[in-house]
Q: What sequence folds into this?
């Protein structure tokens, strides 16, 4: 055992040298947490609950009170207090379109007042607000009319965002117009594995790849809407920075068709949306979870990489590479890491995962990339779209069997809190984290997807922790 620990320590020194990771002060770099209305708000009957109740989300009805999510609507005080105690500097959340406009020309003013209360409560607890307008959901009345592939969607969206920015604008510090717009389109309009009208699309790929179809039409309509919002806000002299929260992954194909598929994914999923918005962003938010090893037309789990409980390949090097690439591509626009996190019910990966991704960010910043902040996904375990309640992304677990959904902070809660307080991760801390992680190699941990990388599970299966070094190398 002593020999194993000595080898582990030597490995750390080879990878990291002796440098501490020092992060900029609060005035130059902020830390935050993030959530989304459909993932946390109760008393919200929406397309996601329709999808779950229709049996399309395996890890849904087998969990207690699935429609309650984590009761952020009726009990926001719990989450906001947790975020405050964590030391959160920016709290990212969204406003649900259907809640404000249950019908096309009908405004729910009580809901608007509730959002005002929530935003002001965040501010009263010493945190800034990053507000998201569109986060993977929409009203039923737009959804059934074709969603974003319908060019009228831009007109339908306008009354919502105009009202939100008029009523809530005084409490907004950062604005996100769209969260992962291309992913929402891909999963609903192309793959048909998120909420959809009718049956799945057997020829969905003809609307992606080198073709235009639903994907390109929808993305262009989203871009039009974003540019409208940006122009409106600037004309009104709004001072909050405006951008998108854009999902990026390190797409990697090993050979032949896989390399071709990976290249298309880079162009369509990483580059296309920000390309359309050049000149209309004050910052570019990046949601990064890891590597996607492309095989043919899929992204199955690869034996050469370690994965999160939700089947995302862990690869901190990819964040550094994408930051460097995008810094050149988008003319040195500032970045915000608007999401980075890991599904890890055991909390074995999370502290090291955070450390390695902050190291990647720090190195990019030392080479001239401007990164304004890091927002972790997420504060508390919640409803994770098509994966339901199986993957656990939170610093805080939820006892869904308890009357009040009791919150149970994991050790990573205190770890992140200390990082925020000190802006420092010492080399000794890094070594200890890697040694602790190596001690878990071979032990069973949960996995919420099959080996095909896309099929969600009702309950997690268990796989061994791999003997793979995924720490930041560059």
A:
């Amino acid at each position: 055992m002593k020999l194993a620990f000595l080898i582990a320590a030597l490995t750390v020194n080879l990878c990291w040298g002796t440098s501490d990771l020092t992060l900029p002060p609060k005035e130059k770099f902020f830390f935050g947490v993030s959530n989304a209305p459909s993932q946390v708000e109760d008393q919200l009957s929406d397309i996601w609950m329709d999808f779950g109740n229709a049996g399309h989300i395996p890890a849904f009805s087998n969990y207690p009170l699935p429609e309650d999510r984590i009761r952020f609507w009726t009990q926001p005080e719990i989450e906001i207090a947790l975020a405050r105690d964590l030391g959160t500097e920016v709290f990212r959340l969204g406003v649900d379109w259907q809640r404000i406009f249950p019908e096309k020309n009908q405004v729910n003013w009580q809901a608007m007042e509730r959002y005002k209360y929530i935003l002001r409560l965040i501010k009263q607890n010493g945190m800034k607000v990053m507000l998201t307008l569109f986060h993977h959901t929409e009203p039923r009345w737009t959804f059934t009319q074709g969603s974003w592939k319908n060019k009228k969607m831009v007109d339908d969206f306008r009354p919502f965002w105009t009202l939100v920015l008029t009523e809530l604008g005084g409490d907004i510090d950062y604005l996100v117009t769209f969260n992962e717009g291309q992913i929402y389109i891909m999963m609903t309009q192309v793959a048909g594995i998120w909420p959809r009208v009718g049956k799945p699309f057997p020829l969905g790929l003809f609307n992606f790849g080198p073709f235009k179809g639903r994907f390109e039409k929808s993305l262009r309509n989203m871009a039009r809407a974003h540019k409208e919002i940006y122009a409106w806000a600037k004309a009104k002299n709004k001072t909050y920075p405006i951008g998108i929260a854009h999902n990026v992954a390190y797409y990697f194909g090993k050979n032949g068709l896989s390399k071709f598929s990976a290249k298309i994914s880079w162009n369509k999923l990483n580059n296309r949306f920000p390309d359309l918005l050049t000149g209309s962003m004050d910052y570019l938010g990046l949601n990064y979870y890891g590597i996607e090893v492309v095989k043919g037309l899929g992204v199955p789990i690869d034996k050469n990489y370690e994965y999160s409980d939700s089947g995302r390949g862990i690869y901190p090097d990819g964040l550094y590479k994408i930051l460097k690439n995008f810094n050149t591509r988008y003319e040195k626009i500032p970045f915000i890491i608007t999401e980075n996190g890991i599904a890890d019910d055991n909390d074995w990966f999370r502290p090291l995962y955070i450390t390695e991704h902050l190291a990647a960010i720090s190195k990019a910043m030392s080479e001239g990339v401007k990164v304004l902040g890091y927002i972790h996904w997420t504060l508390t375990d919640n409803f994770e779209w098509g994966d339901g309640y199986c993957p656990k992304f939170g610093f805080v677990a939820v006892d869904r069997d308890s009357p009040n959904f009791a919150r149970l902070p994991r050790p990573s809660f205190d770890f992140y809190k200390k990082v925020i307080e000190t802006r420092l991760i010492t080399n000794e801390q890094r070594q200890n984290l890697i040694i602790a992680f190596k001690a878990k190699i071979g032990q069973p941990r949960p996995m919420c997807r099959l080996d095909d990388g896309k099929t969600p599970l009702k309950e997690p299966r268990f796989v061994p922790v791999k003997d793979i070094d995924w720490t930041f190398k560059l």
Observations:
- DSSP finds 15 helices and 14 strands in the chain.
- The radius of gyration is 21 Å.
